[in-house]
Amino acid sequence: MVASSLGNYKVFNRIVDWITNDRLQLLNITERINEIVRKSGIGDGLVHLQSLHTTSAVFLNEWQDALLDDVKGFLEQMVERDRYYRHNDPEHSDCERKNADSHLRGMLMGQTLCLQVRNASVLLGTWQSIIFAEFDGPRSRSLAVQVSGI
Amino acid sequence: MVASSLGNYKVFNRIVDWITNDRLQLLNITERINEIVRKSGIGDGLVHLQSLHTTSAVFLNEWQDALLDDVKGFLEQMVERDRYYRHNDPEHSDCERKNADSHLRGMLMGQTLCLQVRNASVLLGTWQSIIFAEFDGPRSRSLAVQVSGI
Amino acid sequence: MVASSLGNYKVFNRIVDWITNDRLQLLNITERINEIVRKSGIGDGLVHLQSLHTTSAVFLNEWQDALLDDVKGFLEQMVERDRYYRHNDPEHSDCERKNADSHLRGMLMGQTLCLQVRNASVLLGTWQSIIFAEFDGPRSRSLAVQVSGI
After folding, report:
1. CA–CA separation, C137 vs C140, rounded Å?
2. B2 pLDDT exceeds 70?
3. Local structure of residue B27 (DSSP, 8 states)
4. What is d(CA C115, CA C25) in angstroms, rounded to the nearest whole number?
5. For residue C145, which of C128, C124, C126, C122 has the smallest C-alpha distance?
6. Which phi and psi (to 5°) does residue B21 adopt?
7. Considering only CA atoms, which of B14, B20, B85, B97 is closest in space to residue B56?
């Protein structure tokens, strides 16, 4: 697989929205991203995803029910919800959502993901799906998608 | 929010420096990055941040005192400083700084961050700040900033 | 260090392959990536790396034997192999590799890495090496490399 091009650079911006149902929820957004890439008309370049919320994340993994349960269990164990956090303590913070764990999970997993565009679609390995993780739902969420290239 | 452009691509490179004061320190660099984006004259594209040091990181989170304390506590608990590391053992390493924990924290959080540029400024959600994390200060640190787009 | 350019944008795509030898293995791929950047003829821009496998990762760290042992120990402790995972349970999953830990390690460390290209080479700090991490070897692996810029 080899490609090399020279031409006019283009930027294609979108914001996509959805409503989540659970406090900790994983969404497969692969098809939605691929649709935007196709609409952009860009054949080679990058697609950049940026969740606009600190208590969420975007990352790659296999989309398999059993594994998704393991992912949730892992995040709940790595960043425990029910321990003392200053962010959840009314003496130190005016945050009413008690969501310090959501912030730490979002920080650990990252709110941005950049992937390659090749042949006018998102480059992904056989088992790679693009996953949006809600860590403080249910809520309305926005993801900024930017396709850039030629 | 929709944008789509076609035009001349531009790359704008800068290195910014600062001196940190503590071993584990968090700096809010949002305004500094936005200044560089404005100077670049680029309206749509990407801004890429790369800390040039393995014992540091760049990531997004809310800039709130109580939460920042939780972030430090979380990193100190996830990657303990005072346990055995071969990197800190004179028999296996000539590293005098005993900073294996700093390396692991930098690796876990990541030294790069890529964000979208829209309307000539960094795209960030309401609660998202760009945070530089020092894991082995006090030291002089450099961050490479590249704005690319049109 | 200041640079600013205006010109013709170019995308240069490659897939590189290798075979890993161990279940958990770290490879220094810095020189291989720099070779591709040099071949691309691009002076300023981004080089994007994307491992096409969920049970692997790409990240930066110092390439030092003692530290690499610490990195492996840290990942083995953070994501334990020998605990119950639904993904490894024949009742819930048809995965024969029993590699839930490999998936979680890959997710935690990330399968993508974007770095700046300046002066026709990858921008890296003195102690930064590009590391490919195998979490489910031995296997044949593919890394997608895209250099874009001018």
Report:
1. 8
2. no
3. E
4. 22
5. C122
6. -110, -25
7. B20
Look up residue A101 and give its two tokens. 């764990």
Cβ separation B100–C67 shorter than 8 A:
yes
pLDDT at res. B117: 98
pTM score: 0.96
At C2, the pLDDT band (50, 70, 90 cuts) reads: very low
Nearest 5°: phi and psi at B47? -120, 125
Distance CA A1, CA A51 (A): 31
**A17, A113 contact by CB (below 8 A):** no
Mean per-residue pLDDT, A5-15: 86
Are C35 and C14 spatial neighbours (Cβ–Cβ below 8 Å)? no
Strands, E assignment, A56-111: 56-61
For residue A136, the Cα-to-chain-centroid distance in whole angstroms is: 14
The 10s digit of each residue's pLDDT in B59-113 is 999 999 999 999 999 999 999 999 999 999 999 998 888 999 999 999 999 999 9
Asked whether the beta carbons of residue C128 and residue B106 sit closer than 8 angstroms, the reply is no
For residue A46, list chain C residues with Cβ-Cβ distance below 8 A.
46, 48, 146, 148
> What is the band of C95 on the pLDDT scale with cuts at 50, 70, 90?
confident
The answer to whether residue A90 neighbours chain C at the CB level (below 8 Å) is: no
